[in-house]
Amino acid sequence: MVRARKYVVVNEFKGWPKREDFQIEEYELPPLKDGEILVKTQWLSVDPYMRIYSSPQKYDQFGYNVGEVVETKAADYPVGTKVVSHKGWCDYVILDTNKFYDEFHPSGKIYKLPVMEGLPDSLALGAVGMPGATAYFGFLEHCRPKPGETVVVTGAAGAVGSLVGQIAKIKGCKVIGFAGSDEKVKWLESIGFDKAINYKTADTAAALRAAAPQGVDCYYDNVGGELSSTILYQMNQYGRVVVIGFISSYNEDSKNLTKVTPLQPAILFHRLSIRGYVVWESLDKFPEAFEQITKWIQSGKIVAKEHVTEGFENLFDALIGVLRGDNIGKAVVKI
């Protein structure tokens, strides 16, 4: 018998998640049935969207992980196969290779590690994983960039935003990124952003006017809040906006959300097109994004930076770090 550990959310989040909202449960895994595999987790993902989903009922903390098959009763998954699943924060897990896991997302069916030709396995949680697909399809299909256009990205130093900015450069755009520290600003400019702005210290409206005197054509919104209102008011006629997150208010009480400048005048008078995008709608096309992004990384056109935490016991701290914006690039935990 294998003893496994998993994180369980035992309290509904009120404001910032607290350590006592989680508990680590230990339990024995049963023998494998036909079609099942036993996977030893090697890498776990920590993502902002984990904060959005909360419930008064207990649930296993979901999320992507990368692991290796250590026992199998599935011919297509021999021992040693690396797999990606959405079974969350656990050190061992039994997966039914014929089952579609969809407890919280339609992200369900496990899949074999993408072919990355020598790149780290952990990239399957980031640039060659769900965040990479979010950047690739959200930007290319819904912002529809054209060479010479000006693109603005918020949360630009994160797992998704940093990829969006680099893809925009590949497509011939001018790219401006907003991030929350001078260190992040320096890093963004080192990977090709034309301008990066520290929204915590700058006059954001003035800084954006200086960086984009001809206005903004495409806006990739990771954060929401007043910063997004500022950007929308500086967009050009028929500008395109894709919204994939609103991390600025994830930890706020829904009854006391921060008031922001109304968006409707900017949308109306600039004739903006705004599209909310959830990556699960592109699930069937993930391999397209993974193949192209892998090629871009291997050719040096994209830098896929990771923020690595070590230790199963440090997962909670890693999540809080992501919500605070401590990470540059994709946050992953090695166990």
Automatic annotation (TrEMBL):
A biological process from GO: prostaglandin metabolic process
Compartments where located: Cytoplasm
Limits of the Enoyl reductase (ER) domain: 18-333
Primary residence: cytoplasm
InterPro entries found in the cross-reference section: ADH-like_C (IPR013149), ADH_N_2 (IPR041694), ER (IPR020843), GroES-like_sf (IPR011032), MDR_fam (IPR045010), NAD(P)-bd_dom_sf (IPR036291), PTGR1 (IPR014190)
Protein keywords: Acetylation, Cytoplasm, Fatty acid metabolism, Hydroxylation, Lipid metabolism, NADP, Oxidoreductase, Phosphoprotein, Prostaglandin metabolism
Family to which this protein belongs: Belongs to the NADP-dependent oxidoreductase L4BD family.
UniProt xrefs under PANTHER family: PROSTAGLANDIN REDUCTASE (PTHR43205), PROSTAGLANDIN REDUCTASE 1 (PTHR43205:SF7)
Complexes and interactors: Monomer or homodimer.
Record-given protein name: Prostaglandin reductase 1
Organism: Spodoptera frugiperda (Fall armyworm)
